[in-house]
Amino acid sequence: MNLTEYVKRVSVEDFGWEFRHQAYWNKRLRTTGGRFFPKDGHLDFNPKIYETFGLATFRKIVRHELAHYHLYYQGKGYRHGDRDFKDLLKRVDGLRYAPSLSNLQTFLIYECLSCGALIRRRRRVNLQKYRCGRCMGKLRLSENA
């Protein structure tokens, strides 16, 4: 089942209303679980949330975005601070905030080929340009990273 079909099923089961637009995965999302676009009605979702926290948490995020969606098309308050939004979100058991992915940050580990030093970095290092800070030896990306 693809993402749009899943969102349509959640919409009918949890809200009793039909979802008529498209849902997409957006790998560029970092701190949010999903987004609703009033301009064209589509929804974006963070695949990292699904991979990290599982289907139960992801379904609650889908409910959150569908609450924005349905309230917008009903002409009610669809923003986070609106009473209509808070009430609907509580009624369908949606998440108010996405769980944090910041403490799950991964590191790349580089190993010096001369002295064996291990160097942790969050971003990739250009191995043609950078060397070990201790002995100026060449670096390689460690397999156990």
Automatic annotation (TrEMBL):
Its cofactor is Zn(2+). Zn(2+) binds at H64, H68. The keyword NAD does not apply. SMART domains: SprT (SM00731). One of its GO terms (molecular function) is zinc ion binding. Binds 1 zinc ion. Pfam families: SprT-like, Zn_ribbon_SprT. It is found in: Cytoplasm. One of its GO terms (cellular component) is cytoplasm. Residues 1-142 form the SprT-like domain. GO terms for biological process: response to stress. The active site is at E65. Keywords: Cytoplasm, Metal-binding, Zinc. Its main location: cytoplasm. NCBIfam families: PRK04351.1. Belongs to the SprT family. This is Protein SprT-like.
